[in-house]
Amino acid sequence: MKTGILRFPGSCDEVDAQLAAALVGDTVLLWHGDRDLQDVDAVIVPGGFSYGDYLRAGAIARFSPVMESVIEFAGDGGLVLGICNGFQVLCEAGLLPGALLPNANRRFTFRQVELEVVEGDTKFTSACPPGELLSIPAKHGSGRFYADEATLNQLEEDGQVVVRYRPEQNFNGSLRDIAGVRNAAGNVFGLMPHPEHAVDALTGSTDGLRIFESIRSAVEGAHV
Amino acid sequence: MRARVLVRPKQGILDPQGVAVERALPALGFKGVSDVRIGRLVELEIENPAELEAISSQLLANPLIEDFEIELLDDAAAA
Amino acid sequence: MRARVLVRPKQGILDPQGVAVERALPALGFKGVSDVRIGRLVELEIENPAELEAISSQLLANPLIEDFEIELLDDAAAA
Amino acid sequence: MSEQLPELKDAIALGLTEAEYELVCEKQGSPPNQVELAMYSLLWSEHCAYKHSKNLLVTLPTEGPAVVMGPGENAGAVDVGDGLICAFKVESHNHPSAVEPFQGAATGVGGILRDIFAIGARPIAVLDSLRFGEIETSERSRYLLERAVAGIGHYGNSIGVPTVGGEVYFEGPYEQNCLVNAMALGLGPRDQLMRSAAAGVGNVVLIYGASTGRDGIGGASVLASAELGEADDDKRPTVQVGDPFEEKKLMECSLELLELGLIVSLQDLGAAGLTSSACEMASKGEVGIDIDVRKVPLREADMEPFEIMVSESQERMLCVIEPKDVDAVRAICDKWEVSSAAIGEVTETRLMRIYSGAELVGEMPVEALVDDCPIYDLAPQKPSEPLYSPPIARLDRSAGLAEALLALVGSPNVASRRPLFEQYDPIVQSRTVRRPEQADAAVLALPNGSALAVSIDGNGRRVAADPYRGTLGVVLECASNLACVGAHPLGTTNNLNFGNPEKPHVAWQLTEAVRAIADACTALEAPIVGGNVSLYNEGASGPIYPTPVIGMVGLLPDATRAGRLGFAQEGESIALVGPFEPSLAASELSKLRGEPLPDELPEVDIEAVRDAQAAVRGAVRDGLIDSAHDIAEGGIVTALAECALAGSIGAAIEIEAGEDAWQACFGEAPGGFICCGHATALAQLGERTKVTVIGKVGGERLEIDLGSEKIELGLDELRLQHRALESVFQ
Ligand SMILES: Nc1ncnc2c1ncn2[C@@H]1O[C@H](COP(=O)(O)OP(=O)(O)O)[C@@H](O)[C@H]1O
Ligand SMILES: [Mg+2]
Fold first, then answer.
1. Phi–psi pair at D464, nearest 5 degrees
2. What ipTM is given for this predicted complex?
């Protein structure tokens, strides 16, 4: 399996995502100005502050040449994972429902959070038993998930809410404690916390590794 | 021509910044201020003002969460 | 009464947001946009509009790096 | 530009003395024009010329086995093995932060990061050291704290460099003149180390990064060289606004240029902008430089030549490259969307020649600009009267020990810093083995399995009481912090934040502090590889507490064994380790009681402390003990509470209080550690240094039996107090 990690000017966690993805396969960094996705099996839109996140997080990055290819790739069923800023970019690009607003506490906040895996049978969570708790760091200034009531209801009905903050852990004010959602087709997933920063006991927990293992199973399952 | 786009959080969406300003005012001795909303002010020089609608809805505002309003400023009034 | 305070980066002060937006526009197919300045839009309900000047300079804007402009909106025009 | 030559009064307005102005005229052979005077006044300012501190700084020890680059370059560097170096330095942005805390602190971080990548190292960590007035009573201090922290986070988070540690203290003397110091570390290949000396006559001088505007004209340099009085609005020029996105691109672009070997020499543009970078590059390279200001990319069209030369616009770098590489360098800049322009040439003239197109608008000997500023001797004198008024009492004399402990744990100088540091990203780059509040020093993994440890420390109140011994304590505390994670020091950086050195008692504080840094660093074999000096930190009511801030970088061989501070396991033994002789002089408790500063602190046995550090370090490395924490503000009992809170587990302790239970509980001194581990392990540690087993880990309470008295508090009660700073951030 080969994972491509996007690199925008202003990306910060792209190398971290690459290190994590390298634990389950090959990796390549994809430059924002290039359209060629280099035959990757999965794409990660990483964390950071693409284009400075000026105006609105993710607002400018979604128009980059590489995102045109990613939108096409996702349309063809390719796996796309958006982490933090990547989640924001995917929402702005319309690949995921909803939007991410400035945190309710008005501050950039770093915290190790506990997430509940709501949907354990997605392409991104198949390695997690449903209901499993993951300890993963979150760090962002605009992570308050918002969608209108009707959309929220529909997301819950269709099993598109993949991970939720545990009680007391939702510091950003996300509606219904939503930490991550997938698209209707199930091949695009975005979340605010950083699974790539939870893949090594030396630097924290290893709970995030499950997400990457799930992606590998999805890709390799599809290949056989 | 100089133009101005006012971008506001949609009604019904929590605006924590606005709430914070509202909360800070009484301590500074200002009473009687309410319903504070904080948004973005974009001012620009544009050759073809007909494009402003598209620029605003595609880039300057996210229609899911924000409303926008376009004001054309005649050149004399421009700063 | 409804009022609006427009807060802008002072002339000569770097406006990183404005620069970023200006650079992004050509890629979206919009040419002919220049001199983009991004500021804050504050809208509020106030009992005594005479206080707006003080509120703006003390809380809403930082006079060292920002200018502000006050607009009183008649109640009908208020959103 | 005005045709008229500036006069003496203009020179004085720019901060030169009459004698200095006359010396400039003499060096120039005629009165300087506007461009020349602007450049002289900046380079001869305290900030650039170190005219009151140079003679002291040369007394610092700067050599050691690990030192690769000592003071004099953009940052110092130490060898960390396997062909890698760690570059590090601390910088102050005190006066800009007092005026506009968000941008002041943000651009402080931006500036120190540029110093790191200017020498070819990728920034891997930031630490901050902050001082404000009393937040419990000062609205202004709360505002400064909140905005400075937001600014540091804004810059460090956005650029993808983790902020892994820091310190913050609140004391009355910082009310008007807050301190905002930032330290950064970088990692890079030893053979790619870059220096700033311009070289190669005929080579091209190229500026890249942000365009040049009127930011901070006369800013940091003039500001940093004059006291900030009450009605000094006219000394407050345009504030510099930081753009971390621009700096992120600038950093990636610089590192790529260096990796490709396209750069001959490199220098960031900091205080005094193009003037100081170009002149220092020319000076170090013993060459001349011609610059055409019309070629500098401008943000505002109508700038005068002198404005372009002194602008302090952020996020800019200056490099010397070979003419054949110009296109290649500009192509890399374009890739990163960083603007670039060839603006000059290296010459053999040893002159700075400034052109505006074809017109020569300034010509100065490099040596006169950089080396000929008069250096002043200090006139140190120990004050006969107390310099600082006593703090306001906040703890009643009738309070019991338990009540005092709660007050200490909740006092702004001791309470948890979480509300601050959780605004910083401590983990980006995937190297952070110990985050804030997990251990006394931050720990960053290296590729070969070893790890760097870093700590930054200061204690203005103790230094104010006794500049020499107080400063010894600061340096020792830094090394103790490293020992607690298992690291030995490789090198040290320092930031000397003091008042007006022309005042004899400030000169005395400064002289004594530098003497202590030299003594302690020599004893610890932790040489000084760089630093910064920030003088004239005064408010209307006098100087700040003298505040030498020490940053120390160390190495531990096995990252997986990095120490922690929290109590680990039920049933383990707890020991007091090291030659600890507590005293209430200038302690946190005496501050809470509103006591005036004493005249001196007890003597410090540097060697004994050093040996205790070695013992603790060894025990952590060998995996012998499970926690280690050095005793600092609030004494042994506060340290015990911190270990219990960090480990979320209680302890039962017996302390032989002797005559003075207060001193035993809350007295402070360098050299004490709280360690926990199996009884046999602690006994083994006892063969290397003084060890007294004082209790056991367990339960949900902290119980301290002092013989005649007892302190018993639940962890919940302690935790609630410990969270006191949360209220500042709502
Ligand atoms: N207190 C100090 N101790 C040791 N070196 C110092 C001290 N203050 C400044 N230096 C050294 O002097 C040089 C110039 O410092 P500075 O003017 O702060 O550099 P920059 O222009 O990069 O900000 C640097 O090499 C710095 O490390
Ligand atoms: Mg420098």
1. -65, -35
2. 0.92
